[in-house]
Specification:
Layout lengths: L2 E5 L3 H13 L3 E5 L2 H8 L6 E5 L7 H11 L5 E5 L2 H8 L7 E4 L4 H18 L4
Parallel strand pairs: 1-2, 1-3, 3-4, 4-5
Helix pairs in contact: 1-5, 2-3
Length: 127
């Protein structure tokens, strides 16, 4: 399946998403903020980035901007529980593939990831 980087500051949400995606066969590296994600991205390649929008240190918007500059073909899925932050993310729709609203179910997150990965694979001509 896919190698996914997950940046989420809430330990319960981070573990829920990590376990859901690992159960679906993905290799998930989970970190607790955007700064840690940037550090991991500097040393490893990923098929997808999943990030919360509101995090300490570096928020998900700044992380998405940096990640998409360094790796423009890597799809980005954003998560948020805040309507105003969701709008900020939609303003970056050229960089972000989807925004999923919290709370979400295991099925919601797995389906969103599968859909994005399928579209990304088609976009680069691998499907």
């Amino acid at each position: 399946m896919a190698k996914i980087l997950l940046a989420e500051d809430d330990p319960a949400v981070r573990e829920f998403v990590r376990r859901a995606l690992a159960h679906s066969g993905h290799d998930v590296t989970a970190v607790d903020d955007g700064l840690a994600a940037i550090e991991v991205l500097s040393t490893d390649q990923f098929d997808m980035l999943i990030t919360d929008i509101v995090m300490p240190g570096m928020d998900g918007i700044a992380l998405a901007l940096k990640a998409s500059k360094d790796r423009p073909s890597m799809p980005i899925l954003m998560m948020t529980g805040y309507a105003a932050e969701r709008q900020r993310a939609h303003n970056l729709e050229a960089l972000i593939h989807k925004v999923i609203a919290k709370p979400f179910s295991l099925r919601d997150i797995c389906n969103a990831v599968a859909d994005i990965l399928k579209r990304s694979t088609r976009a680069i001509g691998l499907a």
